[in-house]
C-alpha cells in the first residue's frame, strides 16, 4: 500500500513539474508557492507520515538532497550568465558592480544583523546565532527562477551584447536587465561564500575560540578554501571547455555531437575535486560553469547543456518543496516562537532590503554605464533576496559537524523564513519585474536579460 501510494504521489508530482511552469506563466503565482501549498495539504493527511522528514532524525537525507539540488542550480546559473567577466580587463569587473556590492557589503551586514537579532530576541548562544545568520544570509539559486535570467542567449544576440558592452554603447545599456543579472550572479556566488561563516559557527560551537583560531579561520576558511574552490572550478571548466570545443580528436569534441550530459559530468567532477583538496565545492561548480561558457561563448551547445540542467533542477526542486511543505504541517514548526517569527519577518522585510539598498547605494555607479542601477532597480534587487534550499543545506551540514542546543528552534525558524519567502517573493516577483520591464520601454527584458524560465 505504501509503495503504491509513493508511486502515485511521485507520478502526480512529476506531472506538476511538467505543467506548472507554463500554466502559471501569466499569473502572479510562482510554481514554488503551489508546490509548497500542495505539500502543506498532503501533510494534513494521516498517510503522509511516511513522507515526513524529521530535520534531526533524517539529517543525512536532507543534507544530500539539498546539496545536490543547490549544485545543479549553480551549474545552471553559471551557464546562463551571458555577461563576460575577463580577469585581465578591469572594465568587465565594473560591469559586475552590483554583484560585488551585494557579496562584499550586503552579505556580511545581513549575517551580522540576523545573528544579533537571534541573540537579542531569542537568547541564542553565539554559535547558534552565527549559524542562523550564515544559513539565512545567502540568496537562493534554486527558488529564484522568477527573478533570474533564463538560458544562454543565441549567438547573434550575444555578439551584439558583447560589442555593446565593450563600447558601453548607450543603446545597449538601456536594454540591459540589471535587476535579473544582479540577482542571478549574486545567487551563484553567495552560496559558496556563506560557507566561511558556517564554519565560524562550527568553530565557536566547538569551544576555545581565541585569537589563534580566528587567524586560522581568516587564513584557511575565509581565504584559502575560497581560493582553492575558485581555482579548481576555473581549471576544470577551462580544461573541459578546451576538450569539448577544440579537441584534436573528433570523438572528444562533445559540442559538435551535442551531448549535453557534459554539464552534469562537469558538475560532479569539479565539486568532487574541490572538496578533495579542501576548497569550497559550491564555488567550484559555479566558476566551472562560467569557465566552460567563456571557453566558447557563442556556441549553442551551452543552451543544450543548460536545458538538461534546468530539467533536473526542476525535478529536484519539486521534491524539496513538497517535502518542505509536508514537514511544515507535520511538526517542522513545533519549536517556532514569536522570536523566530520576528527573525523571519525581519529577514524578508527589513534586514535584506536595507542591507541590499545600502550596498547598492554606496558610491553610486552611473546608471548609463553597464552595472549601474537606478533607484527602482536598486529597490527591486534589494527586496528580492529569496531564501531557500541553500539555507536548509547549511543548517543540516552544521548540525552534522557540531552540537547546537537550539537546533530544533533553528530548523523551525529557517523553515518558517523559507516558506514566508516563497509566498512573499512569489506573489510580488512577476508584477514588479513586469513593471520594471515596461519602464525600460521594451516588451521583454532586452539584450542581457532573457525571459526567466
How would you describe the overall organization of this protein?
- Helix 10 (195-206) packs parallel to helix 18.
- 52% of the residues are buried.
- The model is unreliable at 448-453 (pLDDT under 50).
- By secondary structure, this protein is an all-alpha fold.
- Helices cover 72% and strands 0% of the residues.
- The chain has helices spanning 2-23, 31-42, 59-80, 90-94, 97-122, 126-136, 155-167, 170-175, 178-193, 195-206, 211-246, 254-257, 262-277, 281-295, 301-332, 338-361, 375-383, 389-401, 407-439.
- The chain has a single domain, classed as Up-down Bundle (Na+/H+ antiporter like fold), CATH 1.20.1530.
- The longest helix has 36 residues, at 211-246.
CATH classification class: Mainly Alpha
Rg (CA only) = 21 Å
- What average pLDDT do the residues reach? 87
Low-confidence stretches: 448-453
Strand content is under 5%
Task: Kindly name the structural category.
Answer: mainly alpha
CATH-defined architecture: Up-down Bundle
Share of helical residues: over 70%
In this structure, how is the largest beta sheet organized?
none
- Specify the overall morphology: globular
CATH topology descriptor: Na+/H+ antiporter like fold
Number of strands: 0
Total tally of structural domains: 1
**In angstroms, what separates the terminal alpha carbons?**
37 Å
Tally of alpha and pi helices: 19
Task: Spell out the helices and strands N to C.
Answer: HHHHHHHHHHHHHHHHHHH
Give a quick precis of the structure:
By secondary structure, this protein is mainly α. It has helices at 2-23, 31-42, 59-80, 90-94, 97-122, 126-136, 155-167, 170-175, 178-193, 195-206, 211-246, 254-257, 262-277, 281-295, 301-332, 338-361, 375-383, 389-401, 407-439. Helices cover 72% and strands 0% of the residues.
Amino acid at each position: 500500500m505504501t509503495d503504491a501510494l509513493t508511486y502515485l504521489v511521485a507520478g502526480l508530482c512529476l506531472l506538476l513539474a511538467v505543467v506548472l511552469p507554463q500554466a502559471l506563466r501569466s499569473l502572479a503565482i510562482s510554481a514554488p508557492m503551489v508546490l509548497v501549498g500542495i505539500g502543506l495539504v498532503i501533510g494534513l493527511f494521516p498517510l503522509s507520515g511516511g513522507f515526513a522528514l524529521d530535520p534531526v532524525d533524517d539529517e543525512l537525507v536532507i543534507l544530500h538532497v539539498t546539496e545536490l539540488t543547490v549544485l545543479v542550480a549553480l551549474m545552471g546559473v553559471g551557464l546562463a550568465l551571458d555577461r563576460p567577466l575577463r580577469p585581465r580587463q578591469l572594465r568587465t569587473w565594473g560591469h559586475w558592480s552590483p554583484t560585488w556590492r551585494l557579496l562584499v557589503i550586503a552579505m556580511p551586514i545581513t549575517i551580522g544583523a540576523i545573528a544579533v537579532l537571534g541573540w537579542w530576541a531569542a537568547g541564542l548562544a553565539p554559535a547558534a546565532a552565527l549559524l542562523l545568520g550564515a544559513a539565512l544570509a545567502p540568496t537562493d539559486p534554486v527558488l529564484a527562477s522568477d527573478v533570474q535570467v533564463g538560458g544562454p542567449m543565441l549567438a547573434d544576440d550575444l555578439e551584439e551584447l558583447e560589442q555593446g558592452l565593450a563600447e558601453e554603447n548607450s543603446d545597449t545599456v538601456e536594454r540591459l536587465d540589471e535587476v535579473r543579472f544582479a540577482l542571478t550572479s549574486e545567487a551563484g556566488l553567495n552560496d559558496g561564500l556563506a560557507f566561511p561563516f558556517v564554519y565560524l559557527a562550527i568553530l565557536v560551537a566547538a569551544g576555545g575560540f581565541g585569537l589563534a583560531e580566528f587567524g586560522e579561520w581568516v587564513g584557511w576558511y575565509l581565504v584559502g578554501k575560497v581560493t582553492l574552490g575558485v581555482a579548481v572550478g576555473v581549471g576544470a571548466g577551462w580544461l573541459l571547455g578546451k576538450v569539448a570545443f577544440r579537441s584534436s580528436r573528433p570523438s572528444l569534441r562533445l559540442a559538435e555531437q551535442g551531448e549535453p550530459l557534459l554539464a552534469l559530468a562537469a558538475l560532479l567532477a569539479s565539486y568532487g575535486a574541490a572538496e578533495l583538496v579542501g576548497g569550497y565545492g559550491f564555488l567550484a561548480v559555479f566558476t566551472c560553469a562560467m569557465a566552460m561558457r567563456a571557453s566558447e561563448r557563442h556556441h549553442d551547445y551551452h543552451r543544450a547543456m543548460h536545458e538538461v540542467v534546468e530539467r533536473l533542477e526542476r525535478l529536484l526542486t519539486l521534491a524539496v518543496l513538497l517535502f518542505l511543505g509536508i514537514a511544515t504541517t507535520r511538526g517542522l514548526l513545533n519549536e517556532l516562537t514569536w522570536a523566530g517569527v520576528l527573525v523571519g519577518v525581519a529577514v524578508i522585510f527589513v534586514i535584506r532590503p536595507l542591507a541590499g539598498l545600502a550596498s547598492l547605494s554606496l558610491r553610486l555607479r552611473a546608471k548609463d554605464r553597464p552595472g549601474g542601477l537606478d533607484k527602482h532597480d536598486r529597490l527591486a534587487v534589494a527586496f528580492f533576496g529569496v531564501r531557500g534550499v541553500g539555507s536548509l543545506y547549511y543548517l543540516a551540514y552544521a548540525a552534522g559537524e557540531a552540537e547546537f542546543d537550539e537546533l530544533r528552534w533553528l530548523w523551525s525558524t529557517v523553515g518558517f523564513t523559507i516558506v514566508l519567502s516563497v509566498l512573499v517573493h512569489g506573489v510580488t516577483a512577476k508584477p514588479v519585474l513586469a513593471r520594471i520591464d515596461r519602464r525600460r520601454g521594451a516588451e521583454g527584458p532586452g539584450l542581457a536579460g532573457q525571459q526567466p524560465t
